[in-house]
Amino acid sequence: MLNNTYPQYISIRFIILFLHLVAPLSTVYTLLLLRRSFFANLFTGPIFTTLLQKWCLAETLFFVTFLWYRGYLQHDAIHPPLRSKEERKALFEKVRSEIHDPARFLKGWFRGAEVESIGREDLKEFMSWAFWEGRDEASDEEELEELTAHVEKMVGKGKFKEGRGTAKSLRLTLDPIDMQWRSLVWYAVIVLVDTVVHIRLLIYGFSYTATKASSLRIFPPRPLAAVAVGKKSPVEDLSYWRKAHTSKTRMPVVFIHGIGVGLHPYVEWFHELDRSLNAGRPKDNQVGILAIEILQISTRLTEKPVLSRSDFLTQITKILDHEHGYQRFVLVSHSYGSVFSTHMLTDDTMSKRVAGTLLVDPVTMLLHMPDVAYNFTMRKPTTASEWQLWYFASKDPTVAYTLGRHFFWSENILWRDHIADLSERGNRITVSLAGRDLIVDTEAVGAYLMEKKVPDPVVVKTKGGKKKMELEVEGKEKKDVEWKKKAWKGEGVEVLWWDDLDHAQVFDDKRNRGKLVEVTRCFYDNIGHLDFAMALISAPSVNSRFAQLCIASILLLGFFWYIVPPLEAVKELRIPGLHSSQPKTALPSTPPTSSDTKPLPPKPHHPIDHLVARAEEEYAALLAQETTTVEDAARAYRERRGRHPPPHFDLWFTFARNQSALMIEPFFDQIYTDLAPFWGVPAKQTREQANAFVHRISVRNGNVTQRTDIDERVWMGLWQEMVQSIAEWLPDLDMPINVMDESRVVVPWEEVDGYMSKEQASRGLVDEKLLVDTYGSRGVLRELDLAKLGEYKPEFQGMGPYWPLAVVGCPPDSAARKAYIETDFTTPPKLTGGHPEGSYHGYVKNWTLATSPCDNAHLQGIHGTFVEPISIATSKTFFPLFGGSKLPMNNEILLPPAMYWTEDPFYSGGSSHGSTWEMKKPGLIWRGAASGGRNKEENWRRFQRHRFVSMVNSTSVREAETTGAGPPNFVLPAYNPYDLASTPSDNMGGTFADWVGTWSDAAVVHLLCFPDPNPPYCSYTDPYFKVAKSIPMAEQYSYKYLPDIDGNSFSGRYRAFLFSTSVPIKATIYREWHDSRLVPWKHFVPMHNEFSDVYGIMEYFFGNAKEGLGGHDAVGRGIAEGGKAWAEKVLRKEDMMVYVLRLLLEYARVCDDDRDVMGWRGGQGVG
């Protein structure tokens, strides 16, 4: 941007006037020339003989074409998908929470008009645009009226007059587009500048990657781009410049420019950044720079409009996947480029690939305020910089079209809480703001980010007949605020403040550009050991020659230690392909000690140390809630549940004590999660549905029977045995049973929420005199049996995919409900290898969050349940259905799984639970079928068991590591987010695969392909997997670590693993009855469903002897032995009986017409 000096003002006005008049004057000159010379030259020669005359003719023809083009661009916008009513309501509430003065807010959006001049119809029209994008045919009149009434209430009743007023609102994507024509002279300048930029970038070592689209679709043409020889972009609409990325330890930079002449303002910054990152480094350790071109905002006429959010995300993903080393990157954008950065940062999958973010002059914060819209489209220029913005940016034809038909505020806005969430996930974010920015209210943005202040709305005032934006922040002076003075540290969310700069001026000065280079450099998570050492040598605190000599000697010795392999480290040769990898025995996790050998030291202050310590605290808090008397148990019940315990609670307690069960009230939380919604429907409805369901277990007078559609359903028989073991204490009841592996009931969240509200309202401690302490089910169910109701057949949907059916059970504001639905599973999974969302340095911190599809929308593309399950029979109808597992959004009532009741060694492992810890093999083992759903040639890469086996198979890792080829179904940790001692990026020699081979033995026993002509093999996965023999579970117990991965639903081996003397490593999306009894990192090791943390987990426990790193073997032993001891206290068959008895007493109450007054009288007033 220009400085607002008088000479610059005169210069810019003259240039604009000249460019503005070229076309009209050329047209007038051409018409005069035609009139005077047409007849005279009709037979004697051409009319246009001089270069000037020919140029004027060209300008005239272009001008006439432009007049048509200007009208063409006025067509209606193509809006993003319409929000649901719930999403609109949530957006409205969000906007309402982020404004301070509603009256001034509306005044800004109505171009400075007083509220009294705004008619109610004007307000509705504005609201229709704000929340329906002006799609009148889609607007719900009743809903629109409701939102309008809310605004009236906020501003004050009676402020708006009926009908229409004199005020006119800003409606960016509906208002007529105001643009100024351009002459061929101007576009000739653009060609010259573009050519110079092209040559300069080539000189600086960048290469150009052209689009697949024809260059003829762009005007003015780009001569050098059209003839460029080299790589072609993998997408049709995005070209880019690239500096090759070769580093294996540092992340590349992705840059997206703002409105202007393409990359012209940034060329020197690219060069300075490149020199800062790569000068003096070898060719195989160069940080790449990827500069994306958005031609629609680059002062050009384009055939296609700017990409929509979804199309941009699709194409940028393809580019990043196409370019080597871009699984994780630092994101930098300028001005309008922040729109595309926002798309990336608000996408669940893409945001995980962004390690650090630098937003320079961003325009996407506080977009619900009118200042950006006003300044881009309505601001009347008075200063040099305003005239520059007006003519060369906002009134450029394609830019104006982009702003006027493709700038959707609600899709482009970046809210503060989303920024905070990104920061919590490890994305360091710096926002560079210019104090004199004429587009963005940077004072408000800075206070919004750093002080969490809700900004005042923009006020439009009139000064000298010109409309001008006056921007203020509530309660703060514009200049002297603390956050502007705060030194930049490169931590969390920070603001880089430039007090005397205008929009985009930060790139004009080398010193300012240097600060942006410094910020970008500091975003790199991993600094090589040699870099750190060299920095230490040059530090002032280490300035003696002796100290420098010592450090140099250590580095030299370390270098020889690193390059000279140990004698026993013989490379293992394998043919390409994924075959079972047996662990090497030469390198145990902790070498045996002797008088001459000391154990290798483990890595200190590891994140897992913190998680283990926190688990101990959580476990202690759980134990502190144990009750030992029925009175204490009843009191704990009433405090936690808000109502009296069910009838027969004393009998249940006595039964539990006789079974030596631990009585801790939180152990039974799952029961109340499952049954709570049934308090919201009539008991009669629940009884009749249960009685008439085809698969049913019934209790009548202490006898248990089953009914199903075929003679032999194994799980039904086992569950019948389970219920029979406690039947003498049960009232009569009917239990509908889910006989499928997959969950079957998922009711829309909004409906269940309504039932939950009724359950909350029904709570309360009924007066003891009114309590009913018996069940009335016997007579009622006898009547139902005699009535012989027709079979209850809730509607089940059997057509996939399953994800859209499942996410209706998620909250409206959840990631799953907001995410785009994947339908193409033919490509490798979209994995980053980085830290999963909500993790603690990459490891599971919140088990509930980590296993929730509602909070992890990317699971739809990496778990067979959602890719293509074996079968789908899902109902949205709310009715009682018991099952052994479910997804968090399902509505089944959980029982202990039937296979946990069996003594079959296939599930239980038999009587042996493994040898002592010292006698075990120091590694992990996994054997199982490649289940998880219906894997086919086009989708097998997305299945979880295939992915896990590939990731811990040394052959597959070696092939990816040594060839550089992307693995078909996983990603290697190329940028080392888990700070591993050895990574695939250390060299191309396969050392990472060697390390994996020392501890992993994983293979499939059946590939289960579809169709399945040659079991257990599979034509399309045979090149990647070797089918191995199954290993009995009792033999698997001879290994220290036992991963447990979901199959078609939950894994039936989990309980047996917990009873073993080994460490279960659990990854799942399914809920089971015992979840509230187990503490992650105390009783088992939790693992993310991406499995990105498996390498970090195994290095923590196993170590890396070749790199001189010991493991935390004692911690592993503690989890194994502690988990086994705990399972023997809380996961026995007796504990299942106690749980099911409590569950069915509660279920029988919820099915009883007197349920609101039913309960156990005892235990009140004690304590």
UniProtKB/TrEMBL annotation:
The keyword Transmembrane is annotated on this UniProt entry:
yes
Q: Where is this region: Disordered?
A: 581-607
The residues covered by the Glycosyl transferase CAP10 domain are 849-1154
Membrane-spanning parts: 12-34
Pfam families the UniProt entry points to: Glyco_transf_90 (PF05686)
Signal peptide feature range: none
Bias kind Low complexity: ranges: 583-598
Q: Taxonomically, which superkingdom?
A: Eukaryota
| Keywords in alphabetical order | Membrane, Transmembrane, Transmembrane helix
Among InterPro entries, the record links this protein to: AB_hydrolase_fold, CAP10
Which protein is depicted?
Glycosyl transferase CAP10 domain-containing protein
Give the species this sequence originates from: Meristemomyces frigidus
